[in-house]
Amino acid sequence: xxMKSIKSLLAESPNLTSIPSTYIxxxxxxxxxxxxxxxxxxxxxxxxxxxxxxxxxLLTSSDPLQRSKAIKDLGKACEDWGFFMVINHxxxxxxxxxxxxxxxxxxxxxxxxxxxFEGKRMLDPIRCGTSFNPSLExxxxxxxxxxxxxxxxxxxxxxxxxxxxxxxxxxKKSQEVTQLLLEGISESLGLEPNxxxxxxxxxxxxxxxxANLYPPCPxxxxxxxxxxxxxxxxLTTLIQNGIDGLQVQHNGNWVNINVxxxxxxxxIGDHLEILSNGKYKSVLHxxxxxxxxxxxxxxxANGPALEAFVSPAPKLVEHENHPQAYIGxxxxxxxxxxxxxxxxxxxxxxxxxxxx
Length: 356
Known about the structure:
Elements: H1 6-12, H2 32-42, E1 53-55, H3 56-59, H4 64-80, E2 83-87, H5 93-107, H6 111-115, E3 126-130, E4 144-151, H7 163-188, H8 195-199, E5 205-214, E6 226-229, E7 235-240, E8 246-250, E9 253-256, E10 264-268, H9 270-275, E11 285-287, E12 295-305, E13 309-310, E14 329-330, H10 331-339, H11 347-350
């Protein structure tokens, strides 16, 4: 049975002033397992820091000096923050608006229509639902989602009718940007530009689009859109509808990410941390909600091929100085492990760490 979406909960109680107790995060404040999460929810984020901005046009410049400086900046952003904002990326604003509208259209379908896209298993090509994994959670997240595998095979819900075309076009363009960023990241690690592409078999790379809907919440300080977590895969691409709500952990503080209009956010996933042998780390981030406006975000998890075996690049493992820090694992197995667990920090990646 599909759990009720936040959207329908609000439609049934339009004057809701307090949230159901199953969405209240602070009730677990004394539960040790949640303690790190609770403590962080109550801190005030630091606003003074700005995440790095990467000018994509310099990374693709034919001027070798500009390009090598851009690669250095990209490497620094990966090492210091694990999150960066990309400008001048060449993905048309109309295209970003079109996919945003298509996702809004999907969330506006009736519960009955959405049922058809529920999905039962982790690797189902289309799944929609609420929270993250309601069957395991004691507290639910204030979030409805749609997850669609768009590569190597392209899937799309059949409703709304405009979805498929907008999605295909946006995913294709965003994949071109991601591909060039991964080449730059490869070089910044001292590897061949095509190392990641080949080692991860990106021709069959798994891309999953996740659209998130965070409706206004009557008690935003008690709820959580998404708790602190890192992403699976190599790089995540994120756009949003102009409403901020993303916070990133940096030097022990939560930092509000104020997104420049029409930029695309990228962050490092667990598998780039594994591949770089820990030089570039996946970063904890979370989504907070507000009581005024609906926030929407569209992420694409760009991962290795499902059958690819991911382990540290041999060139980055030196036995004395940088011993191998992670055991290898097939991407498909990791994906199923992460999607069927509770969302809890970097607990999935922690299982692969080698204590040296």
